[in-house]
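Escalation from tier 1.

The customer reports that the assembly of two entities below gives different structure tokens on two consecutive runs. Tier 1 could not reproduce it. I'm attaching the input and our single run for tier 2 to review.
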Amino acid sequence: MDLHHFSLRQLREGLHNKNFSARELTETLLQRIHTLNPQLNAFITVAEATALASAAEADARLAKGESGPLLGLPMAHKDIFCTADLPTTCASKMLENFVAPYSATVVERLAAAGMVMLGKLNMDEFAMGSSNETSYFGPVHNPWNVDMVPGGSSGGSAAAVAAGLVPVATGTDTGGSIRQPAALCGITGIKPTYGRVSRFGMIAFASSLDQGGPMARSAEDCALLLDAMAAHDPRDSTSHPAAASDFLRGLDRPLQGLRVGVPEEFFGEGLDPEVAAAVQAGIDQLAKLGASVQSIRLPNNPHAVSTYYVLAPAEASSNLSRFDGVRYTHRSHAVENLDDLYRKSRYEGFGAEVRRRILVGAYVLSAGYYDAYYLKAQQVRSLIREDFRRAFAEVDVIVGPTTPGPAFGLGAKNADPVSMYLADIYTIAVNLAGIPALSMPCGFTRSGLPIGMQLMGDYFADDLLLNVAHRYQQETDWHLARPNLQTGEA
Amino acid sequence: MDWEVVIGLEVHAQLNTATKIFCGCSTAFGAEPNSHTCPVCLAMPGALPVLNAAAVDKAIALGLAIGAQLNRKSIFARKNYFYPDLPKGYQISQYELPVVGRGQLTVQMGDGIEKVIGVTRAHLEEDAGKSLHEAFVGQSGIDLNRAGTPLLEIVSEPDMRSSAEAVAYLKKLHALVRYLEICDGNMQEGSFRCDANVSLRRPGAPFGTRAEIKNLNSFRFLEKAIEYEILRQKDILESGGSIVQETRLYDANRDETRSMRSKEEANDYRYFPDPDLLPLVLDEARIEKVRQGLPELPDAKRERFMQQYQLSAYDAGVLTAGRDLADYYEVVADGVEGKLAANWVMGDLLGALNKAGVEIQDCPVPAEKLRLLVQRIEDKTISGKIAKDIFEEIFHQGGEVDAIIDSRGLRQITDVAAIAAMVDAIIAANPQQVAGFRAGKDKLLGFFVGQVMKASQGKANPDQVNALLLERLQKAD
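Tier 1 run:
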């Protein structure tokens, strides 16, 4: 019984039919984590004791006849979500020893649903990166080829789900951090509409762009998890009053009459031909399912990366000011005075990429530069939003590649930050606009690396994206492919 | 040639909400350090601000009271700087779009002269915590109880031309926030603090370079700091120097201002809109609801006092300068003559409070008791002089008006026969003075009145004593 390949629905059936208990399921996956994590480095913290305790509690609730859709099902959180009583590091030395006295709203909601949390997942430091190589705890390896990056920043989440360490995981997406690693690891992930999922307790990178979301091996499992994650949260002022929705109800709707737009700007220079071909095949598949396909323009998309790399660092430079060496963070020893305390603690506590973005952010906000950078970028952001508004007057879903290429080698792009930033060239505009977008597998390269296809929808069309992806996955089996991993088992 | 002083004030009024501006922690003063904190005001990772609606309503109340433009949409911004008592590394404030726009305040200067002072804006922001240096050796303590307390920063136009005008404006604003019950006005605890921008110029010339003086936590310090600053700047300008734009600290112990930092050393605060908070949108219904709840404001109350109690503009101004005093007066004046009540409240009561260093809200004599005392004068039970003695006693030792009158036998003697007997006795005992009076020394009447009052132990009705004395003395034997 390959429990580690089961979908949430299969696992739930198994629990209800008493084929296995939540405890047995948990033990099985913990064992798999122990076996595989040394190769993958997907987990920063494995929460064995608390996982077994939650599993026992879930078994007791199941025995009483309770039947929540997620009761007893295992998962893991990106280590950006605060968890009471477990370390929350954000993959930074700065928070190496930090234990939050509270849990993020998302963590509370999934725990209340009876899910069993197996641990905290590796990521780029403070979610800044596209390869998971900026983690203080070392890079994550791609399960399809351990010499390759898993993508980032939710690289631990993507690798853990792809490798069958957990059926589902949470991720966060500021400029592509759910979709890009989902594409590179061959899984499905959705960045919901901004305001769907509470940001309370989710360590902020760029507040106006950050959004938590589910990562899983199918659209259906994403829908199940998002159902529990999305809700209005009075503790988050940017949480939308209509955040909650039923993401399962419309999953099976036929795609007859669906209007699909394909942006010309997503198929230009820099796109790997194998990726282009696989995505084109995916679009053809949608047409076969009844969708009408038309070409559209997103003329301001080419400005998205530069806009993002002004606004996201600006917000980050301020958001990360609280990590100052005074209260709960890393504090440098042997400091002479207050300035020294700030300078050394922050220099030692933050990695190079985080420091770079703080400097860029402080620069674009500083007197004399604000208008030329920050304000200008906000104006371009409005234009990008306007692009999508115009597009969604004509089409229901926009489809294109998630990334310009498949997973790249560890260390390949470290020397050149800009080439790394371009890994998010297709995902960033979505965050700037605040619309939902999903990535799902649509093929493999000849060398066996997964390729992702991105679906973008209008505000609050998250359910439509899940519906399209689910119908696609009913007809294709890219999402069912599993990497070959050496478990040492016979 | 004369110098003209130009003054603008920035006032931080701590809004008296029960909880902080962006979280549910208590704002109570004086608690154990760091006991009124939570993940939000401790700036734990992932914690987010949620705006306290009560703080917004209090800002609206001030805006309405000064006839200000209320911005239907205002923006919270982050003011970025590092300091240990600023846990987030930024203060949430309002920068480009404040909730309260342009308004004005009219102050009464002496001689019935009124002056209108423009208010540029008032914006909502959070307070920082406190650094504690005394209790620790080689270390500093941080108390974040105050971090996140709501403040309304009220910025005036540079419309004041003397320290007296600045003090009048600050007093008026102080009275206003207390009337509105949006701030407790406690200057010692820092709930109402003031910074002053001071510059000099030749009359008619453009504004000179200003110095900003911080840490002015009393009306007196404001006055003294401005006076000091005028002399300092005058000295520099008249000896050919120029004023440096800088922040200066007022040291009350040495009565001087000292440089804190110059413009060049000033922080670049890197303001930008706070992405954690949506724009603050005010709708008409909300503004109207606050308007309905506004109390009678000082200017309206002053007018009413002049009409209703027949008071002079000066008396009405003094009595309505503070809401507590006005309320006290109205209880006293309810049933006695308005001017007599005003004399007692402004004279004996304020004098005694001043001497004892007690605020009106802690007055040991309840207004009802003072009213009864004044009533006992009006109904001629006691004389005004006796009333003053009783007041002194009640103020310091307590006790009931009627009980003191009865137990001491202080009731006024109004029996004509009894007074006549005393008058006759005094006249008989002082033949020389009688002769003097009758020879034209009118002033001697006072001597006789004094003697009779003394003989009656102050209890004889003075009007009757006067009348009887005149009658007897003018009658030739």
